[in-house]
């Protein structure tokens, strides 16, 4: 991810007097941009067209960072944030901008970064994948903080640029049933004798119900287990306790240890009927509506044929691999987390797909001796924010005719476009994926095709 304002020993962080700033645009991280004394100034919370007052909090040779103090002339596109915790919570940082303008900004930022950092311009800018602007998250991890003085545990999210936990009672971007659990869950957690041992709490909305996963750093007393069981029954949720060894215990009529393959694990279902089971803590896309649209578009763009060999790198639990395999192609999925590889294999079995195989490999390492590395017809990439640069060094061995790259960071997508263009690929299609409305996060899908193929 492109980082602005990484602290260096020679940087100055002294607060300045208030200064007046005219904001001209947003950077790709959602901060307003102005100019002062020949420097670019980044002002989180400010919008284009606004005249604001701020204080410089960090200065470098060519740019500075300012804290927004006052909005003198507001933008016509500024809106009142819906969330009561907006000013403290470190999550949704673009709620002050209307949703249409959020999406326009993200698309412009995506196209601009691809041109500036990757020297890549798409032949076709496909329509953005958009969905609900609120109540869209099917999963969230909340932090806890135990105050030794008050003996109270706070349940919430981290504050902006801080480890401090902000108490949350409602979250408008969470699926409503999950948001409604936060306050009663906080109350029952504060009744536990072992609340000092609480870690994070994960809330999950799955196709087979709602799940609450509580991380505990020590064993619970029977009385605490009973309180959690009563909570689970009264709120109709599956409550799982995660221990020190990442073991999972379902608190039902009887405590039951869960393992990969258990029917009690959460799963989500795609439009094509494929069910993907996952273990709490493992990565899955948090926006179900957009994930379905994204998978459908990727399958459509790759246009696989039954005789083709398809490689899916960073495959997770099979989110793209299994839909591609359902089209009849021979699919290979590769993932760096062994537990997710095991889960993907199980998901393939449950979907009765025998034309897909999964491998555990560190995709940032030397791949030359990997048995699966070789000529493929199509390639799908869905890396983490660090991108897929190391994997793309093996393009000569793979030689795919077309590549779909799903990115959660346009800066690394732009960087990774360079080796693709050098190897004779053209950027045929580019689309914004608005996976996280109300935040600055930009996801995208790009289709690269080999020239002359």
Automatic annotation (TrEMBL):
[4Fe-4S] cluster binds at residues 83, 89, 92, 171. CDD domains: AdoMet_MTases. Residues 12-70 form the TRAM domain. S-adenosyl-L-methionine binds at residues 285, 314, 319, 335, 362, 382. It catalyses: uridine(1939) in 23S rRNA + S-adenosyl-L-methionine = 5-methyluridine(1939) in 23S rRNA + S-adenosyl-L-homocysteine + H(+). Its EC number is 2.1.1.190. Catalyzes the formation of 5-methyl-uridine at position 1939 (m5U1939) in 23S rRNA. NCBIfam families: PRK13168.1 (NF009639), rumA (TIGR00479). This is 23S rRNA (uracil(1939)-C(5))-methyltransferase RlmD. The lineage of its organism: Bacteria, Pseudomonadati, Pseudomonadota, Gammaproteobacteria, Alteromonadales. The gene is rlmD.
């Amino acid at each position: 991810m492109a980082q602005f304002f990484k602290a260096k020993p020679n940087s100055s962080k002294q607060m300045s007097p208030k200064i007046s700033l005219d904001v001209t645009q947003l950077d790709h991280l959602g901060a307003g941009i102005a100019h002062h004394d020949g420097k670019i100034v980044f002002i989180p919370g400010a919008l284009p067209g606004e005249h604001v007052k701020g204080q410089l909090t960090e200065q470098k040779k060519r740019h500075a960072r300012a804290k927004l103090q006052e909005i003198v002339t507001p933008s016509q596109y500024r809106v009142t944030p819906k969330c009561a915790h907006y000013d403290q919570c470190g999550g949704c940082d673009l709620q002050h901008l209307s949703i249409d303008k959020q999406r326009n900004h993200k698309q412009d930022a995506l196209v601009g970064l691809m041109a500036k950092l990757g020297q890549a311009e798409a032949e076709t800018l496909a329509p953005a994948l958009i969905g609900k602007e609120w109540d869209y998250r099917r999963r969230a991890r909340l932090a806890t903080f135990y105050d030794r003085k008050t003996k109270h545990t706070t349940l919430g999210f981290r504050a902006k640029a801080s480890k401090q936990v902000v108490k949350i009672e409602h979250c408008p971007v969470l699926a409503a049933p999950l948001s409604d659990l936060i306050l009663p869950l906080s109350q029952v957690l504060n009744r536990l004798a072992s609340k000092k041992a609480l870690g994070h709490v994960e809330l999950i909305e799955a196709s087979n119900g709602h799940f609450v996963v509580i991380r505990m750093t020590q064993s619970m007393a029977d009385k605490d287990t009973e309180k959690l069981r009563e909570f689970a029954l009264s709120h109709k949720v599956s409550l799982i306790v995660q221990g020190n060894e990442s073991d999972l215990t379902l608190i039902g009529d009887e405590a039951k240890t869960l393992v990969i393959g258990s029917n009690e694990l959460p799963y989500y279902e795609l439009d094509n009927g494929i069910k993907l089971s996952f273990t709490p803590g493992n990565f899955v896309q948090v926006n179900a509506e957009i994930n379905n649209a994204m998978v459908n578009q990727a399958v459509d763009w790759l246009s696989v044929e039954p005789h083709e060999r398809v490689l899916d790198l960073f495959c997770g639990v099979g989110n793209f691999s299994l839909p591609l395999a359902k089209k009849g192609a021979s699919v290979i999925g590769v993932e760096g987390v062994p537990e997710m590889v095991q889960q993907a294999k199980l998901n393939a079995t449950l979907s009765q797909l025998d034309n897909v195989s999964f491998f555990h490999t560190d995709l940032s390492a030397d791949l030359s001796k990997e048995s699966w590395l070789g000529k493929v017809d199509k390639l799908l990439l869905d890396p983490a924010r660090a991108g897929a640069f190391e994997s793309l060094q093996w393009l000569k061995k793979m030689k795919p005719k077309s590549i779909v790259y799903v990115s959660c960071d346009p800066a690394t997508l732009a960087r990774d476009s360079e080796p693709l263009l050098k190897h004779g690929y053209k950027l045929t299609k580019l689309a914004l994926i608005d996976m996280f409305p109300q935040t600055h996060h930009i996801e995208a899908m790009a289709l690269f095709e080999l020239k002359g193929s």
